[in-house]
Amino acid sequence: MDKITVLLAEDELALAHIVRESLEQRDFKVILCADGEQAYQQYLKQKPDILALDVMMPKMDGFELAKKIREKDQTIPIIFLTARSQPKDVVAGFEIGANDYLKKPFSVEELIVRIKVLLSSNRMLTDHSLKIKPDNETFHIGDLVFSGTKNTIQHGINAWPITSRESDILKLLCRNQQQVLQRDILLKKVWGDDSFFNARSLDVFITKLRNHLKADPNVQIINIRGVGYKLVW
Question: What share of the chain is helix, strand, coil (3-state, %, to 5)?
């Protein structure tokens, strides 16, 4: 089996070499680039399997690089690596065409998991991985704590209830945070079918959940147009 080729564009040389060495020790092939222009030329020449791009780079930043690559290739997975954690930056990255967004500092193990998910056969969640379990689940979403048993969200000393339907949707998003949750699968798991009426109801519940989650502005439910939703923070 051929090695997975990762194009890593990172201008912090110390971090870049640590990540490269760690990936190579796990049998990845790594193309290391120190700026956006070099990364673009290596992308054209090497045809890697996946891109891991720093956002803040000289000559061409990660957003500009990703946009340029997306004009040629709509399918290659792109992960942004960045210290920029403002919601508008995260949203901008996904709108440009990113598949994932990893905030610094990060562990190489987490990066490897993200790479493997994005290079899986469908690059999304499958139906069998989305079962709603009735057990007592607690999720930490940024600065928020969501209780899947009590159907509550807590921020500091303040807590407020959500409906059972909102809770079911949020459980699925939480279990699969940072991954695309397909809209039709979500509808079938929560409502039983993906009819037009249920699809409109889902839109309403997503809006309500966004209102519940805005106590932490870093928490976002991103709409991946035509595909589904992704919970990020």
Answer: 40, 20, 35
**pLDDT tens string 112-169:** 888 887 887 544 444 444 444 444 578 888 899 998 888 899 988 888 898 888 888 9
Would you state the torsion angle of the CA atoms of residues 29, 33, 37, 38, taken in this order, to the nearest 10 degrees? -70
Instruction: List the CATH number of the domain containing 228.
Output: 1.10.10.10
Task: Dig out the tokens for 188 from the structure.
Answer: 């079938």
Model pTM score: 0.54
**How far is it, in rounded angstroms, from Cα 99 to Cα 95?**
10
- Expressed as residue numbers, the domain containing 49 is 5-118
Query: CB-based burial of residue 215 (10 Å sphere; 0-12 exposed, 13-18 middle, 19+ buried)?
Result: middle
Same domain, yes or no: 107 and 179: no
